[in-house]
Specification:
By secondary structure, the protein is an alpha/beta fold. It has 7 helices and 7 strands. Strands 3-2-1-4-5-6-7 form a 7-stranded parallel β-sheet, sandwiched between helices.
């Protein structure tokens, strides 16, 4: 889809209209047109995470897959959590991790369960022999017609996925994190410039910013860094699964760079935040937005 020789950010990826399309949640890579670029053919590692062990929630596709590939190429073993219906995407991601000679641990389940979150961390610690990097990336969003029409069950699903699960997983993981470890949350530009159609999602993403900054202060004395990435419009299966087929067509074209971002374009931000060489970066919110301001 792109090449490393294309350095112009406005033309590095196509800026044409996306085909009109819609998927059921949670969205699958095989049904996303065009197929997102996760860095499969372009990301080059340099051993920055050699010997580290990572857990990425929502690691089967989209941003999670791009981060998993990058972490593996930087020398980390990687566990990914995902919904059972995303098994094929998870298997594909695991194959890319294993091609780098790294361990890939696949952990299907629903992080909306406190018990599942606790068990998830236990399985990672047992399967990888420990945990050094926690990427809280799983998320849920849906197009809304107005606050007065949002069913309570949908609000609960957004909050359980985007707020409860990160807290449950981090709470279970912290006792296993040694100095030099890091936690990275996937927030959003929606935390700062919310869209009415994503009001409940935006609310949770703003809360994740507060969570990140507060936890960075709490864990800093223990040598554990906490940061967040705030993506802008990134082309992942979640987009056609958000019930806005008309908006998909021009998705991301309102950015200063004139196009949607690709998951591969976020991978370096997560590697930067996870790498021990960036030991003085904590409590930061790193925007990857195509020029849209926070």
């Amino acid at each position: 889809m792109t090449s490393n020789t294309d350095t112009d950010p406005t033309t590095r990826y196509p800026s044409d209209d996306f085909p009109r399309q819609e998927q059921d949640q949670p969205g699958l890579t095989s049904e996303t047109d065009p197929t997102p670029d996760h860095g499969e053919e372009t990301y080059t590692g340099s051993g920055r995470l050699r010997g580290m062990r990572a857990l990425i929630t929502g690691g089967d596709s989209g941003i999670g897959r791009a981060v998993a590939i990058a972490f593996a190429r930087e020398g980390a073993d990687v566990a990914i959590s995902y919904l059972p219906e995303e098994e094929q995407d998870a298997a594909d991601t695991a194959s890319w991790i294993e091609k780098e000679g790294r361990t890939a641990l696949r952990l299907p389940g629903d992080v909306r369960s406190e018990t599942e979150c606790r068990d998830l961390v236990s399985q990672v610690v047992e399967g990888l022999g420990g945990l050094d990097i926690l990427v809280l990336n799983a998320g849920y969003q849906e197009n809304r017609d107005g606050l007065e029409t949002i069913p309570t069950a949908e609000i609960e699903r957004v909050f359980e996925t985007n707020l409860y699960a990160p807290m449950w997983i981090a709470r279970a993981a912290i006792p296993h994190l040694e100095p030099g470890s890091s936690i990275i949350t996937t927030s959003s530009i929606q935390a700062f410039n919310p869209s009415p159609q994503l009001i409940d999602y935006a609310m949770t993403k703003a809360a994740q910013v507060a969570f990140t900054k507060a936890l960075a202060q709490e864990l800093g004395p223990r040598g554990i860094r906490v940061n967040a990435v705030a993506p802008g419009p990134i082309w992942t299966p979640l987009i056609p699964a958000t019930s806005w087929p008309d908006k998909v067509v021009e998705f991301g074209q309102d950015t200063p760079l004139g196009r949607a971002g690709q998951p591969a374009e976020l991978a370096h931000a997560y590697v930067f935040l996870a790498s021990p060489e960036n030991s003085y970066v904590s409590g930061a919110i790193v925007p990857v937005t195509g020029g849209k301001g926070l």
